[in-house]
Structure formats: C-alpha cells, structure tokens
Automatic annotation (TrEMBL):
Residues 611-622 have a biased composition (Polar residues). It holds the Pfam family Alpha_adaptinC2. The lineage of its organism: Eukaryota, Metazoa, Chordata, Craniata, Vertebrata. This is AP-1 complex subunit gamma. It is a peripheral membrane protein. Subunit of clathrin-associated adaptor protein complex 1 that plays a role in protein sorting in the late-Golgi/trans-Golgi network (TGN) and/or endosomes. The AP complexes mediate both the recruitment of clathrin to membranes and the recognition of sorting signals within the cytosolic tails of transmembrane cargo molecules. GO terms for molecular function: GTP-dependent protein binding; kinesin binding; small GTPase binding. InterPro entries: Adaptor_Complx_Large_Subunit, AP1_complex_gsu, ARM-like, ARM-type_fold, Clathrin/coatomer_adapt-like_N, Clathrin_a/b/g-adaptin_app_Ig, Clathrin_app_Ig-like_sf, GAE_dom. Belongs to the adaptor complexes large subunit family. Residues 720-835 form the GAE domain. GO terms for biological process: endosome to melanosome transport; Golgi to lysosome transport; intracellular protein transport; positive regulation of natural killer cell degranulation. Keywords: Coated pit, Cytoplasm, Cytoplasmic vesicle, Golgi apparatus, Membrane, Protein transport, Transport. PROSITE patterns: GAE (PS50180). Residues 611-647 are annotated as: Disordered.
C-alpha cells in the first residue's frame, strides 16, 4: 500500500506542476476587452506580444484542447494588423478535426492567413475534398466557401468535379454556395467552363432567390469570358425577362423586401446580365425593350434602392440596341438624378451623361441648364464632371451662351481647375469655330498663368488664322500686360502679337472696341521692360527680342532704337538670347535688303497631320472627322545625346532606345520603364557575356526625326503590298501591325499599331513601349488614347518609325502595361515575324 500511495502522490505532484506551468488561455472575449483598455499604441503592442508568446508556447506543446481558442484570438490580432503567419499550420490541423467548431475556425483562418502564393495551402486540398463529400451540409458549405475564396488554379482543377456535383444537388443551401465557388473556379481556370454548362440548364428555374442570384452571377461570368457562351445563353433572355417581370409585379414579400422593392439585388444582377446579352444583338435587345421600359417607369425613386435599379436600367438601355424613345427616357432619368440631393447620385448622373453625350447629343442638350448649375456645386468631383460635360455640350448654336457661363465658372473656380479648363476651352474653340474669339482672349487674360505649355503655340495659330480679329487681339493683349508680367504664357502670346501686328496697334484700327492711342516708342518700352523684367523667363525674352526685330519692318521712326536694343543683347549671358541678337545684327548689317521679306507677316497656318490618327468630333449632334494634333518631334542633336546616355545606362551595345515624341502618360518614369523593358536582353543574338557592337553608318538624325515636316507625300503606295501581322494576342488584348514605307526616305518603315480589347471591361492607362537592335533607330509617336474600349468597340492607334539603313531583318521586343479589372497588368513579348517587304 505504501508503494501505491507514493506513486499517487508523485502523480498528483506532476499534475499540479503541469497545471501551474500551462494555465488555461484567456478567452477571445476577454482578450478583446483587455486590448480595448490600452491607452496607447505601445501598450496595445505589449499586450499583443505577450499573448502571441503564450499562443506560440501552446502551439509548441501541441495543446489540442485550446487550439481552436488560440487560433480565434490569432485571427483577431491579424485583423488588427499584427503578424499571425505562425498560425497557418494550426489552421490546417483544425480543418482536419472532426468537430464542426474546429473546422469553422480552421477554414476561417485558412481564408484569412493563406493564399495561393504559399505552398502550404496545397496541404488542405484533400481535407476540402473530403469535406465536400461530407454528410453535413454545413461542413460542405465551409469547404465551398474556402475553395471559392482562396483556391488556387491547382486546387480548382482537382476539385472542380466535386463542385459540379454539388451544383446539381437539390439542396438550395449548397447550390448557391456551389454556384459562387464555380465562379471562382472559372476565373482561375477558364478552360473548365464547359464542365459547368450542363448544370446551368435548370438554375434559372429555381424558386429560391439565393440560388437565382448566384446563378445569374455564374451566367454573367461565363458570358463575359467566352463569346461562345454568350451566344449560347442569349436564348435565356425571355426567361430572364420573365423573372424580372415577376419581381416587379409581385406583391409584398417580407423576406425579400428592401424599402418597398422586391429583392433589388437580384434585379440589379439580372439587368447586368441582360446588358451583356443584348449588346450588339438586335433580337435580344428587342426582347428586353418592354421590360426595361416597365422597370424605368414603375420603380420608386424616393429611396436609394430604387435609384440603384434605375441606374442599372439606364446603363442597360444605353449599352444595347434599344429604341430611340427608350434612350431618351434613360437620359431623362439621369436628368432627374442631377436634381437629387445626394452628391453620389449627381456624380453618377454626370459621369453617365458624359459617356452618352456623343451618341445622344440632342437628348442630353435638354438638360443643359441643370448641368451648368452643377458648376456651382461645392463638391470638386461634381464640379469637374460638370465642367467636362459642359464643354462636350458646346456647339455652333450655343457657343456664346455656354462660353459665357463657363467663363463665369473660370473666374470663381479653384486654381487646380484652370489648367484643364484652358485646355478644354482651346480645343472647343478650335473645333467649333472662331466666333468665340473674344472669349478666348479674355481667357488668356484671366488664366494666363495656368495654361499648359502647348497652349501658347495653339493660341498663336488660332490668332493667325482669325485675320479679321488681329487688330482687336493685339490691342486687348497689349492692355492686358501693361505693368504685369507675372502670367508668362500670356506675355509670350502678347509679345508675338505685338511683333506681328504692331502696325495695327499703332494705327488704332480696332473696330471691336474703342481704339487706344499708342506710339511706337510706347510699344518698344513695353517690350524692353519685358526683356529686363526679373519675372521673364528665357523663352519670354526670346519672344520679346524677336518681336522687337519684327517691328523694324512695321515701324518707321524707331529703327535706330531697335538696332541699338538688338546690339546690346549680342553680349547677353543667355546663350539663346545672344545667338538671336547676333543673327539679327547680321541681318541689319549684311542682309538688310532681305530684312523686310524675312520678317514679313506670318501667313495663315495650316495644321498638317502626318500619319496621325483622327478622332470623331461631335458638333451639335453631327459627326465629322477631325485630325488629332501631334507635336513635331524635336530637332537637333539632343535626341541622339539622350539616346546615347540611355544606352550607357543599359550597359550594352546592341539595344537602341526609343526616341519618344509627346508622351501622353507617366513622362517622368518613361526612362525607368524602358530600362525595365530592355533589361539584359540581347536582341541581335550575340552572346550576352561579350556583346559585339555592329558597325552603324553615319545617319542624319535630324532628317529622320523631321520627316513629318516635308511638304511631299510622306508615304507611297507600297503599303498595299505589305501584309499586316498580329504582334500580340493574350488576355483579350490584341496588337496588330500595319506597314507603310516612307516616300522621303526608303530606309524608314512606318508601323501603325492597333490595340483592341475583346474583354468586357475597358483597359485603362495603356502604354505601349518597344525596343529594337542597335543597327536600327526607332521613334514612337503619341498614341490616340490611353483607354482600350471593351468588346472591340474601338482601338488605340500609335505610329512607330523604324530606320533600317542596312536592310536587316527587323526584330522587336515590346512591353505592354495597362490596368484591367482593378489590377495592374504588364507583359513582354518578342516580335520576329515581320514580313520581308517591311524591311527589305
């Protein structure tokens, strides 16, 4: 008995020691309460670290009793932003448990702590497969949720069969979860789409709204990803129309009613699916016209729920081939949205009207006064959208009234609006007519310091072409800069106009307003004060000096004074100004007989586009093509120098850099992106360890860059014999190359790229870059846009010039970057299948 008693005492001692060493962990609710008592961030971190240490110790001891509680606390700390990766394996152990409470926490932890980038997630594939075949529907639901949330492509391939079986089950609880899981499987592995096609036949016959909702989501995903599926499911349009009609006409149902509307979530999903099915299809569009009219007229607009349905209805009407009356009804709904007190609804209405203004211009014009009133809104987002839409509504009939309202807006708007305003103002004035020229000059006076750099030459061209307005313009600009040189773009335009039309200013021939009396000396005083002003930039001083030189042929009494001013700046420390002065002095001394001819008034300028794209401009509802403006490429040796500098950074001799012209997006990072594009590639095929530079003949770089300035036709008809190629086709993005040969330089091949998008969403921030071997020279012109429209409804065009003096086979590496479905996409590709006619 004594031996038995000693063993019992020893056992009790060990147990008491164990209990003292491993106390029971606190509950989750108690942990939350403790953390909330922390007064500082440091105190909270200390609590978290202490609890994490206790949880780690428990995990090391393989304590199965409190594993579920510890993982739950770990997930809470993860949601607070603290690291919890050490609990990943414990989640897998909970998933393998037979207890439902353990599985629930384990699957939740897997969804929060694991993703497909970590190989650990593959360890639970077998557990999920077993749970998908479990006898309890709630366990099956947990497995479906986890697979649909974080399943990788490998897991989806392995478990797609089980998901498809559950999609056919009669249990509505499992069917709706299986439908959502199938959506995730299709996104990860699109080729498995056909596996779920038989199971979708009876999904729309389900009475349960949850199953109907998830079924519509599944059908939408399949239609968006496959044109074949889209054609297959178009026959379901009458059935979808019937379901939508039942929702509208049904009475009050407490389990589906939201603010008096029956299941608005399902209605919105059906409308989105109808929009996809009816796009570019006459029969489907006709079948849904009546129900869309019913939804638009019968939906209550006093609550946000009804506004959401109406907004989806409007988008569907505008996207399908609907009747004209239905489109007017949709735009009127957006017009009512503009009167709503909710800022979000007004913003949505303005954005939608901006998208439809080109196709339904006259219908949008009816709401012009409401749109103009939005310019006075306090919200900057609404104000910006209203400004863009107001410019889109300007046409030849309303230009005076609209410009008056817009100029009032310019006078009171924030500085950040003025630059965009000036750009839109310029484009609109040039496109519509010059009848608003008075307003434009006023714009220059009001917002001269906010205009973009390209506004100065554009305004000068506009002034030159408005012959009847020269006297008014020069007088208006002369008065605008009297004593105020702070607005440098305005001073530059004024100096140019005074130099060109100074004789009109002195003669006082203005008929538009009361002429002013100005002498020749007063005009020169203004220009000389511009030259010596501390606010004048080097560019502005160049304008002023050139204007003074031009006045030597316009004025008669001050030629000697002009000669003296010009000679003074022959020793200026500004090299550009000094060069101009020296050349003008030479003109006075050696070529005085040619001076009047060289400095005569500029003729009317014609803007010539060389192989540039054209955009469709909407004027009063009528469409006419207008060439896009392209900047002339820079001349002189500067591009070559920049190219060599960039080549030094690349560390190789077989890559020639791109010479960009007028970049349209991300100019600051263009060099870095080019380095990313080229990397360590060797496009010539030479060994990477010891590249051998190919001999490059001496080529006149400026003549290549300035090909576009030639007055001859730029391209010959050889292009008709050069077949086009598909350079890239992936993820719905397709890049095609078409070819032309330069008429001025046979060694130049002009490649026009056309980027199209077959997916259901636009691709934004699209940037195309290219690199060629060192024996070539490459020049990228500006793209027509940065957005590739969805469903092949439009293309981006961009011109590439390639100089190939040695007639070598052309090879190119391209880099594509864009945003799609909220994700930044990037891809590299090599193009080696250029047709021989393009380079021989």
């Amino acid at each position: 008995m004594n031996g038995f008693g000693n063993k019992k005492c020893e056992y009790l001692y060990l147990m008491s020691f164990h209990i003292q060493r491993m106390p029971a962990p606190i509950r989750l609710r108690e942990l939350i309460r403790t953390i909330r008592t922390a007064r500082t961030q440091a105190e909270e971190r200390e609590m978290i670290q202490k609890e994490c240490a206790a949880i780690r110790s428990s995990f090391r001891e393989e304590d199965n009793t409190y594993r579920c509680r510890n993982v739950a606390k770990l997930l809470y700390m993860h949601m607070l932003g603290y690291p919890a990766h050490f609990g990943q394996l414990e989640c897998l152990k909970l998933i393998a448990s037979q207890k439902f409470t353990d599985k629930r926490i384990g699957y939740l932890g897997a969804m929060l702590l694991l993703d497909e980038r970590q190989d650990v997630h593959l360890l639970m594939t077998n557990c999920i497969k077993n749970d998908l075949n479990h006898s309890t529907q709630f366990v099956q639901g947990l497995a479906l949720c986890t697979l649909g949330c974080m399943g990788s492509s490998e897991m989806c391939r392995d478990l797609a069969g089980e998901v498809e079986k559950l999609l056919k089950t009669s249990n509505s609880y499992l069917r709706k979860k299986a439908a959502l899981c199938a959506v995730h499987v299709i996104r990860k592995v699109p080729e498995l789409m056909e596996m779920f096609l038989p199971a979708t036949k009876n999904l729309l016959n389900e009475k349960n709204h949850g199953v109907l909702h998830t079924s519509v989501v599944l059908l939408t995903e399949m239609c968006e990803r496959s044109p074949d599926m889209l054609a297959h499911f178009r026959k379901l349009v009458p059935q979808l129309v019937r379901i939508l009609k039942n929702l509208i006409m049904s009475g009050y149902s407490p389990e589906h009613d939201v603010s008096g509307i029956s299941d608005p979530f399902l209605q919105v999903r059906i409308l989105r699916l109808l929009r996809i099915l009816g796009r570019n299809d006459d029969d489907s569009s006709e079948a849904m016209n009546d129900i869309l009219a019913q939804v638009a007229t019968n939906t209550e607009t006093s609550k946000n729920v009804g506004n959401a349905i109406l907004y989806e209805t409007v988008l569907t009407i505008m996207d399908i081939k609907s009747e004209s009356g239905l489109r007017v009804l949709a735009i009127n709904i957006l017009g009512r949205f503009l009167l709503n007190n909710d800022k979000n609804i007004r913003y949505v209405a303005l954005t939608s009207l901006l998208k439809t203004v080109q196709t339904d211009h006259n219908a949008v014009q009816r709401h012009r006064s409401t749109i103009v009133d939005c310019l006075k809104d306090l919200d900057v987002s609404i104000k910006r959208r209203a400004m863009e839409l107001s410019f889109a509504l300007v046409n030849g009939n309303n230009i005076r009234g609209m410009m008056k309202e817009l100029l009032y807006f310019l006078d009171s708007c924030e500085p950040e609006f003025k630059a965009d305003f000036c750009l839109n103002f310029l484009i609109t004035t040039v496109i519509i007519a010059n009848t608003c020229f008075h307003c434009y000059v006023f714009l220059g006076v009001t917002a001269g310091s906010y205009v973009r750099d390209d506004a100065v030459p554009n305004l000068i061209q506009l002034i030159t072409n408005s012959v009847e307005m020269h006297a008014y313009t020069v007088q208006r600009l002369y008065k605008a800069i009297l004593g105020d040189y702070s607005q440098q773009p305005l001073v530059q335009v004024a100096a140019w106009c005074i130099g060109e039309y100074g004789d009109l200013l002195v003669s006082g021939q203005c008929e538009e307003e009361e002429p002013i009396q100005v002498t020749e000396d007063e005009v020169l005083d203004i220009l000389e004060s511009v030259l010596i002003s501390n606010m004048s930039t080097s560019v502005t001083r160049g304008y002023a000096l050139t204007a003074i030189m031009k006045l030597s042929t316009r004025f008669t009494c001050t030629v000697n004074r002009i000669k003296k001013v010009v000679s003074i700046y022959g020793s200026s420390i500004d090299v550009e100004l000094q060069q101009r002065a020296v050349e003008y002095n030479a003109l006075f001394k050696k070529y005085d007989h040619m001076r009047s001819a060289l400095l005569e008034r500029m003729p009317v300028m014609e803007k010539v586009t060389t192989n540039g794209p054209t955009e469709i401009v909407q004027t009063n509802g009528e469409t006419e093509p207008a060439p896009l403006e392209t900047k002339p490429p820079p001349s002189g040796p500067q591009p070559t120098s920049q190219a060599n500098d960039l080549l030094d950074l690349l560390g190789g001799n077989d890559i020639t850099p791109v010479i960009p012209t007028a970049p349209t997006s991300k100019p600051a990072s263009a060099g870095g992106e080019l380095l990313d594009l080229l990397g360590d590639i060797n496009l010539t095929g030479a060994p990477a360890t010891a590249p051998t530079p190919a001999p490059v003949p001496q080529i006149s770089q400026p003549s290549f860059l300035l090909d576009g300035l030639s007055s001859q036709p730029l391209f010959n008809d050889i292009a008709s014999g050069i077949p086009s190629i598909t350079a890239y086709s992936k993820n719905g993005l397709k890049i095609e190359f078409t070819f032309e040969r330069s008429n001025t330089n046979p060694s130049v091949t002009v490649i026009t790229i056309q980027a199209s998008n077959s997916t259901e969403l636009d691709m934004t921030d699209f940037v195309f870059q290219a690199a060629v071997p060192k024996t070539f020279q490459l020049q990228l012109l500006s793209p027509s846009s940065s957005i590739v429209p969805a469903f092949n409804t439009g293309t981006i065009t961009q011109v590439i010039k390639v100089l190939n003096p040695q007639k070598q086979q052309l090879r190119m590496r391209i880099k594509l970057t864009y945003n799609h479905k909220g994700s930044a996409m990037q891809d590299l590709a090599e193009v080696n299948n250029f047709p021989p006619q393009s380079w021989q």
